Structure formats: C-alpha cells, structure tokens
Amino acid sequence: MRSPADYVSRRALGVDASGIRRVFDLAAKMKDPINLSIGLPDFDVPEIAKIAAIDAIRTGHNRYTPTQGIEPLRTRLRADLSEEIGRDVGEVLITSGVSGGLFLAILSIVDPGDEVIFVDPYFVMYTHLLTMAGGKAVTVDSYPDFRFPAEKIEAAITPRTKLMILNSPSNPTGMVMTEAEVKAAVAIAQKHDLLILSDEIYEPFLYEREEGLSTGDLGLSGNATASSASSPSVLSPQHLALYLPSPARLYEKTIILRGFSKSHAMTGWRIGYAAGPAEIISQMTKLQQYTYVCAPSPLQHAALKAMDVPIGDAVAAYRRKRDLVYEGLRGKFEVVKPTGAFYIFPKVPEGITASEFVVKAIENNVLVIPGNVFSGRDTHFRISYATTDEKLAKGCEILSGLV
Ligand code: PMP
Description:
- The chain is α/β, with parallel strands linked by helices.
- Helices cover about 35% and strands about 15% of the residues.
- The strands form 3 sheets. The chain has a 7-stranded mixed β-sheet, with helices on both faces.
C-alpha cells in the first residue's frame, strides 16, 4: 500500500524550498520582530484603486474576463509601453501577478534540457520554475559588485542556451543595470540568438540617474526620460521619474514582465502583465487558458484606474530609506549601494556563513533572509527596507552590533 507521500511527483520533490522554510520556521517563534524580510511595499493600495475595485464588484465585473485580460487595460498598457520603448511592444497579456507571467513564459519557451542563463544572485522563483519545466538553470556569479558580468555570461553560453533572464532592478541586490550593461546583454543575446525574458517588476523604483543619459543614447525616441540634466545628488521627487533601460528598447526578441504588486502595493491582488512578440504571448495565453484562466476580473478594472495614481512620493521615500539603510550598515558591513527596488544585500563578516548570521539576527529579534536562498553562495543576507524609519534604524543598529 502506498502512503500519501508516495504519490508525490518527482517534479514536486525536485523543488527544494528547505532554505526559506527554515527561516520561516525560526521566524514563527519570534514575538513582534523587526521584520526586514518582507518583499512588498509598506504603503497601502491607493484609495482610488480600492474604490475602483469595490465599484467593479458592485457593477458586476465578477465573471471570467477574456483569457488575455480586459481590453481597456491591455490597450492602455500596450500604448504606454510602446511609447516608453519607442516601438510597438507587441501583444500584451494580463497575468496572475508577475509570478503567473514567469510561469507561463518559462512553460512556453523552455523544453526539457534547454539552458537558461541568468546572474547569481537571482530571484528565487527562476530556478524552481526551471526545475518544474525540466530546463537547466545556468547561473553566473556577479559577486562582489553585482554588475552584469558580460564576459562570464558569454563564456557560459552553449548550443543549448535558449533564454536569458534579466531582472533589473534586482531582487535581492537592488542593482539596476546601466545602459551599457543592457547593451552588452542585448549584444550577447543577438550574437547567440537568444530570447530575453526581462523581469521588470521593480521598474518604478529607480533612485539614480545615469550621468548624461538621454533617450537618444539608446537609439530610440519616447517620452519616458526626464531628460533635463541634473545631478543625481539633487534629485527632487519629480526628477525621480527616471526611466529603466529595458532591453526591449534595443531588442525585439524580449518579453517584458511587469505588474502592479510592487508599484501599487497590490501583492495580494495578483495582477501582472507580459508584453512582447505575438508568437510567444499567444502561447502564454493558450497556457493561461488552461491554468489560471484569467487574472482577477474586478482587480483588472481597478489596476487600470491605479495607472493614473502618481507614485513619485513612495519612490522618493524609498530612495531616502535606501540612503538610511546604506549609511546604517556600511560602517560594519561590506555593502554595495543599491540603485533600485527596495532591497540591500550586505556581506556577512568573515568566519561565519550567512545562514549562521541570520540565526544570530533572529535570536536578536531581527528577521532577514540568508543569501543562499537566492544564490549558490551563503555569504550575504537580504534586507527589505520597505518598513518604517524607526524599524530600519533599530534593525541596522542591532545587525551592526552582531559584527
Ligand atoms: N519577480 C521578482 C523579481 C520578484 O521579486 C517578485 C515578487 N517578490 C515577483 C517576480 C513576483 O511578483 P508577483 O507578486 O507579481 O507575482
């Protein structure tokens, strides 16, 4: 007789989530921790979007939507993205969060044995999704500065490499690829005929302007740059309307994934979108039809309304918190100053692994995530600084005291 555990697929067993589970088990025992582990904004969904969601439910938007998403939201996203990248972005599919987009993209692109290349540290879901799809993750170390290691990436490409995943701004490092790095990545993709999957979920959270950067530098037009030259040190909130050098500006064989989870604090609403070549997006749509069916209907309507809510104040607040946490840690830790998202990824001191350091932090009531969750290395830890200034300051003080 088989026990229930004997029915579990090799696919499910192949996904090892023990690292993060150990952290959560430890965290469950903490009373009122200083929680610097949460990968979501600490502000609430904009009021306008809440009202729009309630209205959508009341006025009957409670049924399935078309698989690809509601027309007005797709049309608006296609127009905005196309304007930003300076050409028609292609088809748009509304997904169940960016996670849904990642799942459908990987299932649509990766055959068993195909190799997919991306930098280490990486967003943890990539390796697990590739395991599920039977693909092979080829990760390329980007320590210690987390810059795009173009030469090492190129050296790791084989005839089986099919896809390059980029994630800028990055979870867990908070690094934003520079224009030159994006160009280098695109040149490699072009040379080796790879598709690019660009996970841009943190796209609005950009804190530095590249010196001398203009739309023209990427060879494309568009209104997305705040092009008046000003020094990065005197950025005012409106100047934070920077733009992301997306590979889609340069390379048509790019699938963009973005969403509302981080930009509008809607992680529980499950609204994301994928944009790119029709040949891929149509396959993702077909697979969505037989998996998620569609993204939540009333929340698609609310997301459309949320697009008109300015989020510059939140971005400015996170830029300030980025400075706070960086200044609070750099005396004691080797740490690269992040340029986007809301994460920072310091190195633990010599002689101790990140996992051991995190146990010490938890014993001192601070919850952070060990780097081995995102990496082949266990030398760094991730802080999410999307929390109050008080908790941040206290957290930095306690962590520094452990060194
Ligand atoms: N990509 C990255 C890099 C992320 O950090 C996250 C969320 N932590 C996701 C995708 C998934 O986002 P969503 O909640 O929209 O599924």
